[in-house]
Amino acid sequence: MADLSAVLEVLRQRHQPDLQAWGCAALRNLTQEGSVEFRDKALEAGALELVLTALQRHISIAQVQECGLAALSGFARAFEAEAPKGMAAWGRRPSQGLQAALLAMKEHPHEPEVQRWALAALGELLRCEKMVEELWQSSHFLRYTSLALERHASAAQVQAAGSAFLGRLALKSSAQQVSTVDKTTRGLLFNAMEEHLKAVEVQACAVSALGAFVLRGAHRKSMVESRGPQLLLEAMRQHPSSEPVQEKGANALRLLVKDSPEAQALLLKLGAAEVLVHICQVHLPSLGALSAALHALSVLSRPWRAEQPEPWSFAEVPAKTPSCCKPEILLATLQRCPESNSILEPGLTLLWGYLAKEPSASSVECARSATAALRVPTASAQTLAAAGGVLCVTGAEAVESPGAVVKLLLKAQMAHPDQRMLQERAWEAVLMLLRASESLDEVQGKLLRHLVQAMMQHQGPLQWIGCDIMTLLCLPDAPNAAEHRQLLMQLEAPRLVAEAMKKNLPVPEMQDSGCATLQCLALDQVNEGELEQLEDVTVEALLLSLEAQPHFQAAQTRALDLLSSFAQHARWTLARPRAAELAVAALKRHAEDATLVEIACRLLWRLLEGEVSEPMDRIACTLLDLLDEAPSLSTRTFLLHLAKRSDDVATRVLAANGAQPAAEAAAPPLLSLQLMERLAQRRSLRPALRRVGELWRKLQEALSTAEDDEGAARTPTPISLCVCGCALLGRLACDGEAAAAQASVELERLMKQIEASDDVELQSWGFLALQNLLCGSTSDAQLRRHTAVRLQLASELRRAVGPAEAQRGRLETILMMCFQNLVDCIELQELQECYGADEVLALLLRALGTQWALEVRERACFLLCFLANRMPKVKDTFLEGGEALETLLLEALKDHLALEEDPEVELRDELLFELWLPAAFVGRLEQPCHVRAMEVCSPELLLEAMQALPLCAALQVTSCGALRRYAMTATAARAAHAAPPGRRVAALEQRLARSTAATMDAMRSHEKCAEVQRASVLALHALLRLSCSLEGEDVAVERLVSLEAVPILLRALQDFPEDPQLQERGLDALRVLATRRADVTELLCELKAVLPVVEAMNLNIFKPKIQEYGLSILAEIAWQGGREQQMEALKNLGVEAVVRALKAFPQSGEVQTSGLAAVQAMTSENEECRVQFFALSEILELVLEAMGNFPLCEGVQAFGCAALISLVHTKPERVGALADLNCTSMVESAMVGHPKSKRVLELADHLMTVLRKGGGR
Asked: Does the keyword Repeat apply (predicted)?
């Protein structure tokens, strides 16, 4: 202490640089050689303050800086030991020390010792947490450090101190800051390591710094691609006995390899494994170096997954332990620290990986080490998992006490129930021991309970392992198998296994193990309830397994066998067709596997037993392909059983015939056609049947029977044959135009059959076949209909219509569709003879009743309206029917329109309806069939109805509303440059002229009906817009003018002024007409249209569109009508309406454009109107405001200039008032804003002339 006092006294009293340097050096030596207590006493005595004072006072003296910084670094070790006294003595001085060190580095850049001790002091000061943040606030410390390392590259001590400082800085900085440090100094560290390869201190500090960089977020990939791995390995090779170099180097290598397969491959290529193994051999006593080396080896041996995700990609697999890492070395490390997780975990992991790829003679020792690890009380879950993995690969023969090991494994599982990897390895080891040992009965019951719990908690490989354990314990020859099965049933193991199979469908091993477990659980289940429980929870899983693993024979065999066991009980009827389809698929795919074929056939036998609610025609379809090959004995047996047990006639014929196609079966004509008709009920089979020539030959024979022997045609057998032929032809023709065209060759024969018989059943099927043959929108279908008309089909339809009391609803439904099908192909005379017959009209009127289906009612409505417009007889019938008939027609029309508005109804040009007709063969009363029909064209139906019932206001309103909706849809589609959405809209576009005329007729016929007028005006407006878009404005306007629409529209506006929609659409229509045709404007002037237009505007002041359209019409009338119409507008408050509109909508460019046009038109050469405008408002300000609000609107600018000219050019005082409003600037803005508008430029120039002349006067 006397020496310390003397040194402190010198520092206090003697301020010469050499004495100060000597004093600082002495303090450094005393504190370095003394104890922590000695350093604390020196700090308490004020040594730190004296050193800082010396550093500040002698900043230019290198020797003082060197010794002072050395002493400072020694004092800063108080932060390392966290000595309370020493840290208290520092107080707030760490910041002063930091600044002193940085200042010394700045002032003495060429002094290596100053740089060395400054870096050392900075590194020690970083132990104080607050210093890191303060250091980063300095903007130059990193540059000083880089310069020191670069300038003193040959000074090992500087390089060591700098590396140590950078490493500690990285550990305490953020990822972004570390990235900055890494980019700035990594190359300098690499250079230091290369330059001072033999300097162990430099290598240790640099290796530690690189590891800190990677740990704290430096870019691993760039580190690997640079010289990092090579320099690390070279340092470790140069200093094999240096524990710090080896430990820090191993840690750095581990961090580099983490999550980088490229780095792993590079380091293995560079020999990193051998270096790390050498550490395990040389530094066996050092726990730190040993642990670092083992962990680095473990990471270096990690197997990497493929980039594409695979099933169970999360499962743990053995490490790829390098060959140089022998079991003997690993066993020695494990024995060195038998209870340290940092040694046991990586050591056992590496041992597991080595033994997994290469058996070892020391398997028994490996098993002992793994067992010893299981006994460690503090063993981690990872250690226990690795021990389980070692046991799995050593084999049961290496385990000395299997029962004790199983108990240890169970204990480990219970200690860590949430650790999936441990659970997998432990249960895998248990499975291995169970397979090899029969003396584990005492733990099996407890084991199963824990197994079920683990499988519930952990998905993946553990469920596969668990299924194998269950299977092993429940095999018939296993001890206590019945008790085990009973216990698993109580634990609901079947449900657990089924769920595991569903969740792991892509994994064939899981499917195989799951099916095997379920098979074992189903053995000897005499309890019906348990078997039903098993069946309920597993059938779906088995079916999904068959679908997911079609090529895995083992899983297919087990699943089919288990389904075959369940198929004896007719409980899962919904899944039977699916099971049959999968069984047939398995038969075709694995025909060479005799066992699978036998099991699949047995399953199909059992599926066919008992009552089958749905014919299994998919089996028959599949067998068509299977029978082309030589079937095995089991297949023949199955086909025989199928023929005996199936209720499907087609399936029986296929099975009995074997290799012959069903259509060519040798059978009586009636039976053969019945069989073909039954097959044709399946849509999937009809294309194949239509390609069979033998089928058409038999069909021709059946339809020719009546022609060959007309007397015999009245006997039951030929009638049945004809009915069956008609039914078959109808089914073959119901699949669209191509199918109908192919079947149309039988049209004449079919007509002769219908003509020759009065049998209702034959007529039903015959007319259905005719409807399917004749339906269609193509030219070929039209040609077929003309051919049928030539063959007197209309007369046959009339003859088939029976009296009302016959109640032949199904036949009449088909007749109704046939009547609609032919209506456009018959001449008027024949139309009157056939369709005008009393019985046909009675049928049509009867079909309007609500008891009929909508497809019948809508066709009856169309036909009646169509006929009423062409036949006086039907028109008279309408008059006789009165309001009741109108109500029925209106209801049918509304129901038709409501159907197309239903979003769930698919609208198509051609429809397919299902009907139930008398069966075509004995054995069934009725059977379903399909009939083709063209959709009733809505626009055509509406127009026919409007023409047929012109005085029915409700029908006119409904029809106009629908026409408006179609027109708006078509207009929107054309605006979007899209095709017309649907046949209805396209039909309206084809009937635009007639639709417009019908709408005008409705307006004429119902002048005083507000609803009709409103609906008609809205429809007329929509049709006008569509016509303008489709045909052009000239054509559209000409059509309305020719229909005298102008006075009718004007009358509607006058009669219903309080209807805003009518007013808006009516005014818009008149505006379009007036702006396109001068004669329309003249007509409006004659009809004195100003008053109704002004009234509409006054009643709808808050409707901008009404204001816009009204202003536009007023402008046209005032401009074309001259002074007379201007005065008419003035008299009827038109000026007031214009001013009110301009004030009400200052932000509407359309309203302002039309309003300014009206101002200009009214004031042109009319002083009275000008005076009124000036009297009502500041009209000049209104015009200029509009021009200012819409500088880019050409219409506003042009009409604004024109209006100003008309308002002011006759009165100099008005011109002066306009000039005072800065009009010149506004006009110039208009000219600049529209340099290409001839209209704007001319009017603006004219206005400028007016202003100049007015100013001159």
From this structure: yes
